[in-house]
Amino acid sequence: MSTLTIRNLDPNVKHQLRKLAAEHGVSMEQEARDALARGVAVEQPRRKPSIEALTQLGRKPDKPFNLKKVSDEMWDEGLR
Fold it and tell me: 31 and 24 in contact (C-beta within 8 Å)?
């Protein structure tokens, strides 16, 4: 394991780090390690959409869109 010293840290950043650490039930040091790990994580390459997929976005739907049904399904899914 390596050691890293961070100088001239903005007090607001330190305060937020302390707050997040308390919310997650970990030390500030652990919270900082986790934040750094998330910050440098390698992102998965994005796939380019196909012409067919882009064309599909501009088409009129085959049937009417029922927003209430969709929101009810989302609500029910969130409660499980």
Answer: yes
